[in-house]
Design a protein that fits this description.
Helices cover about 25% and strands about 30% of the residues. With about 350 residues, the protein is an alpha/beta fold. It has 3 domains: about 180 residues, Rossmann fold (3-Layer(aba) Sandwich), CATH 3.40.50; about 60 residues, SH3 type barrels (Roll); about 80 residues, Translation factors (Elongation Factor Tu (Ef-tu), domain 3). The strands form 3 sheets. It has a 6-stranded antiparallel β-barrel. α1 packs parallel to α2, α1 packs across α6 and α3 runs antiparallel to α4. The longest helix has 20 residues. The chain is globular. The mean pLDDT is about 90.
Length: about 350
Amino acid sequence: MKKTVVIGMSGGVDSSVSAWLLKQQGYNVVGLFMKNWEDDDDSEYCSTRQDWLDAVSVADRLGIDIEAVNFASEYKDRVFSVFLSEYSAGRTPNPDILCNSEIKFKAFLDHAYSLGADYIATGHYARVREVNGEFQLLKGLDPSKDQSYFLHRLNQSQLSRTLFPLGEINKTEVRKIAHDLELSNAAKKDSTGICFIGERPFRDFLNKYLPTQPGPILNDEGKQVGEHVGLSFYTLGQRKGIGIGGQKEGSGEPWFVARKDIKANTLYVVQGHEHPWLHAKVLEAEQAHFIAGHLPSNMDIACKARYRQGDSTCLLQLKDAEHFHLDFSESQFAVTPGQSAVLYDGDVCLGGGVIQ
């Protein structure tokens, strides 16, 4: 009998081509459209209805069944509440990582099992490999699209039942397949940013949920150079939107957010990308998670301290089951509390933790 794969279909080109590839591989494919956000479903920024129509159109074209399931309640409890509490504390969380571990590979996985699924699948650019009974998460072969960073909190049970059809191919080939199949969304723009914010201005969105608490902006000499609207609205390394861009004092170089003093409600900024306050050779992380369920045998590994950063060699030191310390061979730009430090041994994603 054919194995059944339930695939998350978002209405985008990646999940659509993934569904086609699975069907070509001989699986019985069922599409599942996840609705994770309801608060402003009728706004100009929310594309849920159009995404659903696109997913249905593709499913019809491919000849597969599709259903919609509402995870908005789970999303609000498990992802959005954490997002708000982290921003309230002055940190910069990555809700897409939490969405993967709590929704796509937990709530979605459970629902797929109830439908009789043997496997689930998504349109992520990543790979799974089994070695001596252990499941490894690997980078996608397209380096510009690799999404293993966002999947580093998955465990052995989840990986053993997950397929990533796009792991072996690149984005240009995905687009070509979609055009050749004449899929209605073949030229659809990739979604960007945080899933529940969409294309709306980020500060406008946060304003709806977090109070503004203005305070001073100081430079590295303690001189006030402006006023911030609330520490929650800024992230370390931020260059645009600080509100002091017109000032040409000091070196004349661009301003960057460098530090936050939560107790004093004070934002510190510096000039120039290479300012020492913006660089660090060590970091501390909490909520440690290792995909294999145990520590890597090699402690001399690599890390991404943010998604678009390259891998940087470092030495891993485990402080306890929940915390680790990293010593980098080269300084890292804007190591940001709340973001994830994701660990690699070559192409193998080992896990990671949340930067303290």
